[in-house]
């Protein structure tokens, strides 16, 4: 009895599957018949229909075709694959244009992780590390190449140390776009500048592991493109004239395009960093945050400190660029991307 029941159940299931397959075959057969008639009108070549090739063969082919169609239409509408299928079926010029734009957008998005080291952390997060509106600077590889060339010295494009100044009145008087690096003592300002100018022979950038090593405003000239200023560190062992020197410089420099606030990615924002943010907000000058020493921080530390910086920028600032930068002077990570933004903010890109 059990065997007969199982056989009866198998027969019912087989009949149900055959009926479903037959309905699918009929639907696809009608669709194919319409396509064949249309092709015959255009080319004059006759094609066999499913009914002419044997019912069993046509049923199998129809089931396979139904599976393929199901797989195609499972893809999200608007992808490059969908637009490609639409362009093939309809020959629509607009669809081909959208396909080209989709490919360009896809290639640009795929190149961003290689350029911006922040994106390497995205696979470990359930939310975007930066919102779309916060991605202000999204250069191409060609832009990065042009920016990198600015940091190579030549006879017509000399990169040199100009002078040091205790007070803003002693600063060089030239009409060049200017950027300034500011941060806590021992955050890595001088090391970062040395890494940016690493390909320049004869240019000495003094670095030290001792906090508060930089006592002066140090001016570097990059051809006729821009000037870079290494400011004294604040916080522990800051110079006695720091307030007069730093505040006077930030307030008085008319050609200052951007101030780069350096934050240690290993330890994150500290009390003195919040004071610096308040000062820059009070002066109403444009600035951005650069997280240094990414090679020393663990992945968890990087994620926590970057998310904290992004939240502070989003909630407590008005003049800060919403897009932070991540660099390592030791490994070189993020340096090309930072060079690109320096070229961009100084009007050289």
UniProtKB/TrEMBL annotation:
Its cofactor is Mg(2+). InterPro entries: EngB_GTPase, G_ENGB_dom, GTP-bd, GTP-bd_ribosome_bio_YsxC, P-loop_NTPase. GO terms for cellular component: mitochondrion. One of its GO terms (molecular function) is GTP binding. Gene3D superfamilies: P-loop containing nucleotide triphosphate hydrolases. Keywords: GTP-binding, Magnesium, Metal-binding, Nucleotide-binding. The keyword tRNA processing does not apply. NCBIfam families: GTPase_YsxC. This is GTP-binding protein 8. The gene is LOC110977229.
């Amino acid at each position: 009895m059990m065997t007969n029941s199982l056989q009866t159940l198998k027969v019912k299931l087989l009949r149900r599957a055959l009926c479903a397959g037959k309905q699918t075959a009929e639907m696809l057969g009608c669709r194919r018949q319409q396509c064949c008639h249309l092709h015959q009108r255009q080319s004059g070549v006759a094609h066999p229909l499913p009914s002419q090739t044997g019912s069993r063969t046509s049923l199998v082919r129809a089931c396979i075709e139904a599976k393929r169609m199901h797989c195609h239409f499972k893809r999200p509408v608007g992808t490059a694959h969908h637009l490609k299928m639409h362009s093939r079926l309809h020959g629509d010029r607009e669809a081909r244009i959208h396909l080209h734009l989709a490919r360009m957008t896809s290639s640009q998005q795929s190149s961003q992780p290689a350029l911006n080291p922040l994106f390497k952390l995205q696979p470990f997060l359930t939310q975007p590390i930066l919102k779309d509106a916060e991605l202000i600077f999204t250069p191409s590889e060609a832009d990065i190449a042009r920016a990198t060339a600015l940091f190579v010295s030549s006879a017509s494009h000399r990169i040199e140390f100009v002078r040091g100044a205790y007070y803003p009145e002693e600063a060089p008087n030239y009409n060049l776009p200017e950027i300034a690096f500011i941060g806590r003592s021992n955050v890595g300002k001088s090391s970062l500048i040395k890494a940016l100018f690493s390909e320049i022979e004869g240019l000495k950038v003094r670095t030290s592991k001792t906090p508060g090593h930089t006592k002066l405003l140090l001016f570097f000239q990059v051809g006729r493109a821009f000037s870079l200023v290494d400011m004294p560190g604040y916080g522990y062992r800051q110079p006695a004239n720091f307030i007069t020197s730093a505040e006077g410089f930030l307030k008085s420099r008319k050609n200052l395009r951007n101030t780069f606030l350096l934050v240690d990615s290993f330890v994150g924002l500290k009390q003195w960093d919040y004071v610096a943010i308040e000062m820059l907000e009070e002066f109403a000058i444009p600035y951005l945050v650069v997280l240094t020493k990414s090679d020393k921080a663990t992945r968890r530390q990087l994620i926590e400190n970057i998310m904290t910086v992004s939240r502070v920028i989003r909630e407590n600032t008005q003049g800060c660029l919403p897009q932070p930068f991540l660099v390592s002077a030791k490994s070189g990570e993020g340096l090309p991307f930072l060079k690109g933004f320096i070229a961009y903010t100084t009007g050289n890109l």
